[in-house]
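Entry 14. Ran structure prediction on the chain below.
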Amino acid sequence: MKKMFLTSSVKFVAENIANKIGKGLRTAFVTTASETEGPNLDWLVTSRAAMGDAGFDLFDYTVTGKTYEQIEGDLKDIDVLHVHGGNSFYLLLQSRKSGFDKFAKKFIDNGGIYIGSSAGSVVAAPDIEIIRRIELDNLVEELKTFNAFNLVDFIILPHWGSEKFRNVYLDERIENSYVEGNKIILLTDTQYVLVEGDMYRIVDVEDKKK
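Output, structure tokens:
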């Protein structure tokens, strides 16, 4: 049965998720989306630390420059696939080039657990056109289409209510989203969508320490 945890910010909900799936699970921490976001990656470091503290057995991994066969071999023994945040379009581009999008679907179909954080949750959607930003048009041109992983039939818009992302939403994202045909879920940093089979629900973890 499909099992996914689509988070806005995994560091606030990692313990809650670990309590549901168990501790000590071998987890690939996919950092690809952060490769365009340097040099300050404190947010990634704190997320990794939160997952480690929650009991995940982590190792860092990138799909950039890999082939599908390499990814399949490297990740053959994992229990959990965690795709972390950063640039959603860069993540999608590298996933298409490497075949990681296809690997993720096969992994989930075979009973693996997928945890997305921010961009890693966004790309689970069928299409990510509504998060398009002008400064990312070079990546958009290379992608040619906005088709994403298509793991779920909705799109996550993360960090709702966060002051840091206020202008992104008010200046672009709300206007882009205000069209028919999009099934949208706005998530705060203490919420995630739990997907089990064909069912999904929003889980709210009020204590940010979790």
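The chain has a mean pLDDT of 91. Will compare against last week's run tomorrow.
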